[in-house]
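If your schedule permits, I should be very grateful for your opinion on a structural question. Please examine both parts with care and let me know of anything in them that strikes you as inconsistent. The record follows directly beneath this note:
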Amino acid sequence: MNTIAEIQRTFKTKYTRKEFCIDKFGEKTIEIIGASFLANQASIFAEPNKQYIEAELEWYKSQSTNIKDLPLEKTPKAWKITANKKGEINSNYGKLIFNEVYHNQFDKVKTELEENPNSRRASMIYTRPSIWEEYKEDGKNDFICTNAVTYYIRDNKIYSIVQMRSNDVVFGYKNDYAWQYYVLKLLSHLLDYEIGDIVWQVQNLHIYEKHFKYLEN
């Protein structure tokens, strides 16, 4: 199992070797394709923004799909780029797993693990085939980044395997980790098991040029 320290070293090595990609905005990025590691820290680069994380968690729990309801004085640029003119997005993760529109997936996983602790199908699926149309609906730019998360009971603990399409290693990981840890903690509490490891699997883990400063020492 790769560690966060190994992920950091890989990015720094790629930076030294100038292994850059150019994104759709013309900005340099560095990518790790098919990253997999033990997510046992709340951050990979830079400190978590606790105020933002708390606000995002509350917004996710509200299940609102409008960024205007994000309880912050200033909405982050990343969400503004993602939303349409009305402020609507697809990626309210709370709605995707708690709402009946998406089949009450949290409750179904909880029931599955209660009835079959050895289950291999306790999955919460965040994205869907229709995202190919919905990501650009009415001017949105929101192709859901998390594919699915699967939970396992082993050794009297609940483990989670997070599978992502795309993840920014600086801001994205910190905020997504906070959400995934919240869900795992809630599930563990309700089922009365200890919290196990989180394994993070990302098809494209990347860092933007504006954050290359974290690779320089």
In short: The longest strand covers residues 194-208. The domain at 35-68+77-161+171-198 is CATH 3.30.572.10 (Thymidylate Synthase; Chain A). The helical segments are 4-16, 50-62, 77-82, 93-98, 105-115, 131-134, 171-191.
